[in-house]
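Reviewers of the previous submission asked for a worked example of the structure-prediction workflow described in the proposal, so we include one complete record here. The input consisted solely of the amino acid sequence. No template or homolog information was supplied to the procedure at any stage.
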Amino acid sequence: MAQTLLKTCLKPFTPSLLRSLSISSNPIRPFSSSSTSSADFTFEYIKNFDSIPKKEQEYLIYETFPISSSVIADINLELFRQLVSSDVIFTNNLILIREKTFNTIIGFSFTKIYEIFLGGQDKSFENKYMTTQYYNAVLPHFRGFGLGTVLTEVTEYLAQKDWGDCNQVSFNITLNPMYYELRSKYTPLIYPGPKELPSKGPEKLFRQIMDLVGLSPVSQDKPGIIRLKNLHIIGQEKEKYTKRYNESSDYMKYFIDQHLFEQGLIMCNLAVYNLVEGNTMGIAPGRYKNFIPLMHEINEYKPKFI
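From that input alone, the workflow returned the following structure tokens.
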């Protein structure tokens, strides 16, 4: 159902980024990367986005949509709404990156958090897996400060702060090999991936989540690859990655071999960050990645509409 909805929302047009930016009440100003540092950005956090007033939600949807248009060329507003919301989530959080000089939103992370019980029947604590799924984007001319990585780590730090005593995993739809490889640096428990895992638990949970969100792989030998027709990812830089293929990590090679940089294909994957004693995956308990507070301001979002 979700797959059908995504496909019907995609439209055969490529909107101009400049035209899209005019939607925002904070249009992007000229920017010089040579005169800007990471200290010029601040992060704002909204816990449970769905609980804030509808007018505020709409305002933030319109503020962040143009940023999404700089990553996915053929996205429209209805599809964007579907990507950042769900009827089956436990909660939905939002992180904004704001450029201080002009007080402009230049990046975001919508984070959906699911409460999933492996197999669906056993409702015990050991069988509960708090699962993040986030949709991140940063405007192209603000890349180069590692903001995408920082956004990912801030997102997971805040989730770990709330759910760090539970089994905690991250299901994600990854657009390029760099971010797939990044996840492998956080944990050795990645599915699907180039390395054999100690149990079938991650694979079973991955397939359960795929069913939950209505996604199907293109084939059995590519369990994480899904196809969305007419989807055009901007700036994938195929040549950059293929030229360095032989020197790349096993994870980078795996992404390239599975994905082949074919437009319309996206890789879904599961990363396991924390497992409790007696977890039903049958894998050694422990925190595989301890996300720590970063040297960036993280403030509570101040509503525009009271």
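The domain at 2-7+40-300 is CATH 3.40.630.30 (Aminopeptidase). We consider this example representative of the routine output the project will generate in years two and three.
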